[in-house]
Amino acid sequence: MKLRKVTAASAAVLALSLAATACGSDKKDDDASSSSSGGSGKVKIGIKFDQPGAGLKKPDGSFAGFDVDVARYVAKELGYQPNQIDFVETKSADRESALARGDVKFIVATYSITDARKAKVDFAGPYLLAHQDLLVKADSDISKGTDLNGKKLCSVTGSTSAQNVQKSIAPKANLREYSSYSECLSGLQSGAVDALTTDDDILAGYAAQDQYKGKFKLAGLKLSNENYGIGVKKGDTATVDKINKALEKMVSDGSWQKAVTANFGPANYKNEPAPKIGAIVK
Ligand code: GLU
């Protein structure tokens, strides 16, 4: 009985996936059998789930943010319609391994291009230039010139933000590392930490949330240059080339600016102009 049920369920799944393949775009990418595309005309894309403005899974299960719009645009250029995309959460510390394992075809997740990461993955882009900053309570006296050594800072494991604190920004800070920025946000709210530090676009997205309005402010420090790239499995240069073409088109047809305005506008985030492909700001 149990076996029959499983068989019926598998048949249903097979029928569904066949239907999905049949309905799929005829311009589909050439590797529908790889694990990151699920073998059913689907493509798995890594994003963040808890960064409003950049990458967010909403309570109704839908996805929104600048990275989500970039991911959808690129996927379309690769031959995938929105209903063929499976968004997968890729936290900061998990991105290189998710690509190496083939869990996702590419990652659009506030993912800075660095030399250390380039040893493990390939990058298309950059498609956005952000800067590391601090989010503090509205009444905090932390500002430009404040010595952050000795302060309680919160950031995320595996991020450039945490590394920059340890290497250069404030090596003697009391750095707390969590697995996501939203966990740091709770610490900031409760007073357990003095500041949350990461890229300014992410921080602006948090500060603009209804429940935090008027509670936090960005220090406006531009502590680093974060060149966002789209991560791809090491050696998959064909996909990198296709993604770069898609990104160029996204800028030239106005879709990039539209996505910036729609996603960062509500947070009043002053973004840098669209970067040129391959042009890294050190
Ligand atoms: N852009 C930085 C990084 O890739 C910080 C944001 C993040 O953790 O995603 O590490």
UniProtKB/TrEMBL annotation:
Gene3D superfamilies with a match to the protein in the record: Periplasmic binding protein-like II
The organism's place on the tree of life at top rank: Bacteria
Keywords annotated in UniProt: Signal, Transport
UniProt cross-references to InterPro entries, sorted A to Z: Bact_solute-bind_prot3, SBP_3_CS, Solute-binding_3/MltF_N
Protein name from the UniProt record: Glutamate ABC transporter substrate-binding protein
Provenance organism: Streptomyces roseirectus
Biological processes, Gene Ontology terms: amino acid transport
Family, as annotated: Belongs to the bacterial solute-binding protein 3 family.
Presence of the UniProt keyword Transport in the record: yes
UniProt region (Disordered), positions on chain: 24-44
Stretches assigned to the Solute-binding protein family 3/N-terminal domain: 42-267
Signal peptide limits: 1-22
Listed GO CC annotations: extracellular region; outer membrane-bounded periplasmic space
